[in-house]
Design goal:
It is built from 24 helices and 13 strands. The protein is an alpha+beta fold. It has a seven-stranded mixed beta sheet. Strands 6-7 form a two-stranded antiparallel ribbon. A two-stranded parallel ribbon has the order 10-11.
Length: 492
């Protein structure tokens, strides 16, 4: 694919953007200039490249700064170590040296000209000699812009600034070649689509669709990281839709496209796929501020977002057409919890995240048994204690799941959940629901029954916990009497 350099007219048209970008870099310009002069004095080129340049045009400030140079790793280290406050060389084999200067983190990488084994996706690291050669191997044109240092010359040989203005994602090389070199770039296209709100170019979308199956050669961990970043974007729907429409989701999360159940005139029901995306959007709206207290579920919250997106993945397996044209999904929350656990494990999510998301999916229908608010205090206690520390997320997931277009029904459900939350707050204040325990501890139970620690003691503890949940605080004497009655009945 030929380069797409900015024409003089385009450069003039974008002059205000260039000036604004430089202005946004003003706080770090002295440092950039100083570092550039050090490399120049040593006979080397240096350029700020990629995300920091793109973000400057977008009005954002990158916390980390990426540079590229013709200097080899040992030379980078020799120049940078004397100047930086700290340095590390964990990426030396790939040409990257890390530096810290004050609060700033810097990564300086030797020009790359990697050659990939397209069957294993393992690169043979080869260093390049020119900035232009380095830029062509980058994922997207908007990430292939650079600023030479210390001259501050703007380099854009692939039309990245034009793409940025058009809010478009295009690859520097032909998309088929770019994705053949690294299939993970297809995931990055979806992620940047979500993070930046950009549309992928038609030829990029076509190449993603054609080469979707090649994502299988990428490790689950790398795919998971890109997917998580996408899901944590301010508006992830566009990126998720792109994953589904191109077939990429079929490779690593087939349960998501499987939600696209047909809806015909005889079996009318919600489009489960679209409903799940709406629930995700509504859950995001209910997240607290990033610096909010834990009970506000500070956003972006990966557990809540995963649960919102996947809460109904048990529906395809449980769908039944009922007489009269109805559709049922009995126990889809239980089936869904198992599917979530299996899928997130396959994607190499950590155990805590997997367990929490699966539990939220399992519990997401529990509220609908609340009906007209006729739950006993025992049922309310169980709802809160079963959720445990996930209760704030469950509140938001349940509210987000009410997507009915029937205004009266939506208002009724909202009022019912308001009432449930108030009852939970009242009982929590009265009984410390977050610390519900039997009124006799393990030692007291063992003493009352004359038994040693073991499985039987565990059963007795569970019995008294159920008493506590059903009847609230009844006092130690009454609890002991109930325990002895249970023990006598058990011994008969």
């Amino acid at each position: 694919m030929p380069d797409r350099p900015l024409s003089p007219a385009a450069t003039t048209a974008h002059r205000p953007l260039l000036e604004a970008a430089v202005a946004r870099l003003a706080p770090v310009l002295p440092m950039l200039t100083e570092l550039g002069e050090l490399f120049a004095a040593a006979g080397h080129e240096l350029a700020l490249v990629g995300g920091p340049v793109r973000d400057a045009f977008l009005g954002r400030v990158s916390p980390d700064l990426d540079f590229t140079t013709d200097a080899r790793p040992d030379e980078i280290l020799e120049i940078g170590a004397r100047w930086a406050d700290a340095h590390w060389d964990i990426g030396r084999d790939f040409g990257t040296i890390g530096l810290r200067k004050g609060p700033l983190q810097l990564e300086i990488t030797t020009y790359r000209a990697d050659v990939y084994d397209r069957t294993s996706r393992k690169p043979e690291v080869m260093f390049g000699d020119t900035l232009e050669g380095d830029l062509v191997r980058r994922d997207f044109a908007v990430n292939a812009m650079a600023i030479r240092l210390p001259s501050l010359e703007f380099v854009d040989v692939h039309g990245g600034l034009d793409d940025l203005v058009a809010r478009r994602l295009m690859t520097p090389a032909a998309p088929e070649e770019s994705f053949a070199d690294d299939p993970l770039r297809m995931m990055r296209a979806a992620r940047f689509s979500a993070q930046l709100g950009f549309e992928v170019a038609p030829q990029v979308r076509a190449a993603m669709t054609e080469r979707a199956a090649t994502l299988e050669m990428i490790s689950a961990e790398r795919v998971r990281e890109e997917f998580s970043k996408l899901l944590l974007a301010p508006e992830p729907r566009g990126g998720l839709t792109l994953l589904v429409d191109t077939g990429l989701a079929d490779v690593f999360l087939p349960e998501l496209p499987a939600l696209r159940l047909e809806v015909d005139e005889h079996h009318r029901h919600k489009d489960v796929y679209d409903h799940s995306l709406i629930v995700l959007e509504q859950a995001i709206d209910l997240e607290g501020p990033p610096d909010g207290p834990p009970e506000s579920v500070p956003g972006p919250d990966l557990v809540l977002r995963l649960a919102a997106l996947l809460h109904d993945i048990g529906k395809p397996a449980t769908r039944r057409f009922e007489p009269g044209g109805g559709v049922s999904f009995h126990h889809h929350e239980l089936v869904g919890a198992k599917l979530v656990s299996k899928r997130l494990k396959a994607m190499r999510f950590d155990k805590d995240t997997t367990k929490q998301v699966a539990r939220l999916v399992e519990l997401h229908l529990r509220f609908h048994g609340y009906g007209d608010g006729q739950w006993t205090d025992s049922a309310v206690r169980r709802y809160a204690t079963d959720a445990g520390p996930l209760l704030p997320r469950l509140h938001r997931l349940t509210r987000s799941d009410c997507t009915t277009r029937n205004v009266r029904k939506a208002q009724r459900l909202s009022r019912a959940y308001d009432d449930l939350e108030k009852r939970i707050e009242r009982l929590a204040a009265e009984e410390e629901l977050g610390k519900v325990r039997p009124e006799l501890d393990g030692n007291e139970i063992a003493e009352a029954l004359g038994i040693r620690p073991g499985p039987v003691l565990g059963q007795a503890y569970s019995y008294l916990l159920s008493v506590r949940l059903d009847d609230g605080l009844i006092g130690k004497d009454a609890a002991r009497a109930r325990l002895l009655a249970w023990w006598a009945a058990r011994s008969e």
